[in-house]
Amino acid sequence: MVGRLGFASVLLLCRFAVDPADAPAFLARGTRALELLTAAEGALDGRLGRAVDDPGRWVLAVRFASVDAYRRALSPFPVREHVVPLLSEALADEPATYETLVDAAAGTATEFPSLLA
């Protein structure tokens, strides 16, 4: 099935535990990471957020058009210099990269075949 985007996307989702005193520095680093990652060809969009009920928990989410776009986005030197160290600080108790199986907008959901198949 083909959705709004016409393809299944890849989601990078990293959670972080950040001391509230370090929040301003983390916000700056996360913003720079988003700028670098979303500048890559095949990057669709990205977000950096903080948990409403726990100001020490943050999440970085970036969508890519494909697995290849995600991998290419991590290749440039500025990304390896600024983004990769940040991503290495993410909580490691779960995977960080997911394939999109269902996309929904305006009350309509679209399913995608697995990229793993």
From TrEMBL:
Signal peptide: none annotated. Residues 12-73 form the ABM domain. The keyword Protein transport does not apply. Keywords: Monooxygenase, Oxidoreductase. InterPro entries: ABM_dom, Dimeric_a/b-barrel. It comes from the Bacteria. GO terms for molecular function: monooxygenase activity. This is Antibiotic biosynthesis monooxygenase. It comes from Pseudonocardia petroleophila.
